[in-house]
Amino acid sequence: MTAARHLQTYIDRHREALDRLGDLAPGVTAAAQACVSALTNGHKLVTCGNGGSAADAQHFAAELTGRYRRERRPLPALALTTDSSALTCIGNDYAFDEVFARQVRALVGPGDVLVGITTSGNSANVVKALAAARDRGAVTVALTGEAGGEAARHADITLKAPSSRTAHIQEMHILLIHVLCESIDDAFVEDDVAEETPA
Ligand SMILES: O=C(CO)[C@@H](O)[C@H](O)[C@H](O)[C@H](O)COP(=O)(O)O
Ligand SMILES: [Zn+2]
């Protein structure tokens, strides 16, 4: 297939998913409220995922500790994918399934929000992180594909990107993350006329 044909296929499939994304409005509202309420009450956001979703987890956390679009105070957020010592120690000494859950048991407390990102919904390390966070009294949010999978069973709120294809699920996930960042900015930007940094 030519690159041009790939491009058209991606545009068509991306648009198909995008056209159905509005159905997630109630879940997005609930997730935004959970994030804002946790951060307002001095709690933190913790994220995790594998591969491309690890990048999304880090992206989300950095939007909060750094900045998203508007100027506001730094907000507490942490991706569990970034500490190679913790990942290799826990993976080596326990099991890869435990790499996020053990960090959750160390770092996540009541009132925090754990965001688990998994396109299949079935990555065991993300599922176990959601379960551990729930045990710790955190609010659990899963970003999944349309199937939801096992992750949905351990999440208080599940945002199911309306696609079964990993790439397009990931594309919807990053859009959803940015939408959550808009709501978080709304809650923490003090001067609402603050300008966006030009690209
Ligand atoms: O980015 C991609 C594929 O687009 C890959 O790195 C992908 O994230 C990895 O295969 C992940 O291990 C998939 O895990 P999950 O989304 O099913 O939890
Ligand atoms: Zn990818």
TrEMBL record:
One GO biological process term: D-glycero-D-manno-heptose 7-phosphate biosynthetic process
Residues bound to substrate are N50, G51, G52, E63, N92, D93, T118, T119, S120, S123, Q170
GO CC annotation: cytoplasm
Gene3D superfamilies reported for this sequence: Glucose-6-phosphate isomerase like protein, domain 1
Tell me where on the tree of life, at the top rank, the source sits: Bacteria
Q: Where in the cell is it found?
A: Cytoplasm
Q: Which UniProt keywords apply?
A: Carbohydrate metabolism, Cytoplasm, Isomerase, Metal-binding, Zinc
State if Cytoplasm is listed as a keyword.
yes
According to the UniProt entry, what is the EC number of this protein? 5.3.1.28
Per its UniProt record, the required cofactor names are: Zn(2+)
Domain named SIS is located at 35-194
Molecular function via GO: carbohydrate derivative binding; D-sedoheptulose 7-phosphate isomerase activity; zinc ion binding
Residue positions annotated to bind Zn(2+) are: H59, E63, Q170, H178
Describe which pathway this protein belongs to, using the record's wording: Carbohydrate biosynthesis; D-glycero-D-manno-heptose 7-phosphate biosynthesis; D-glycero-alpha-D-manno-heptose 7-phosphate and D-glycero-beta-D-manno-heptose 7-phosphate from sedoheptulose 7-phosphate: step 1/1
Keyword Cell inner membrane assigned:
no
Catalysed reactions, semicolon-separated:
2 D-sedoheptulose 7-phosphate = D-glycero-alpha-D-manno-heptose 7-phosphate + D-glycero-beta-D-manno-heptose 7-phosphate
Cofactor stoichiometry and binding remark: Binds 1 zinc ion per subunit.
Function, as annotated: Catalyzes the isomerization of sedoheptulose 7-phosphate in D-glycero-D-manno-heptose 7-phosphate.
Q: What else is known?
A: The reaction produces a racemic mixture of D-glycero-alpha-D-manno-heptose 7-phosphate and D-glycero-beta-D-manno-heptose 7-phosphate.
Q: Which family does it belong to?
A: Belongs to the SIS family. GmhA subfamily.
What's the protein here called?
Phosphoheptose isomerase
Q: Which organism is it from?
A: Deinococcus aerius
- The protein's gene is named gmhA
